[in-house]
Amino acid sequence: MGVTRVYSYTLAGKAGVTPEQVRKDFSEYGIKGNRRGGYLTESLVREIEVIFSRDRESNVVVVGMGNLGQALSRYERFAGRGINIVATFDIDPYKHKSRSDIHVYPMERLEEITERFGVTVAIIAVPEISAQEVCDDLVNLGVRGIVNFSPVLLKVPQYVVVNNVNLSDEIESVILSVRRMKDEQSLFL
Fold this sequence. Notes:
46% of the residues lie in helices and 16% in strands. It has nine helices and eight strands. The chain has helices at 8-15, 19-28, 41-51, 67-73, 77-80, 93-96, 110-117, 128-140, 167-188; strands spanning 5-6, 39-40, 58-63, 83-89, 104-105, 121-124, 145-148, 161-164. Helix 6 links the parallel strand 4 (83-89) and strand 5. The longest helix has 22 residues, at 167-188. It starts with a strand and ends with a helix. The model has no long low-confidence stretch (mean pLDDT 90).
């Protein structure tokens, strides 16, 4: 867009926070701006990319190649953020023969592949019944970050980060917010 400088109040407005919060967060990471000059856009983008490790690739595996796992493994925007899906895994032998850009391996090869690619982050998209077992296998192989799409809260050691993504909860939250807004609007009509 050709913008060379950006100000905390502009970023705050777009992020839905206060300018003070933007400055505080930036200062936490050593990002310095100028009171009158704001932040140099090019420098700011570079520093944020380093914070989010976008300056290097992270190898990730997907376990569970149902519809959701397939969609995640094909998601094109991961590459632009340094997220490299190196392999996918499933227990279904038929899926091991499928043709796609990313090979579907049997679970027996999980250790070999995670070691070969130095994987420390995994996506779990398996049914509830096998989620904890898959999680335990991944943690035992050195995976320290898991994005969990299974409808179960995983038990992990303190040194493992888990982000639970429950699509039903997300949709229900939006539905509830829409209903509340609708109810509030009807009070004023």
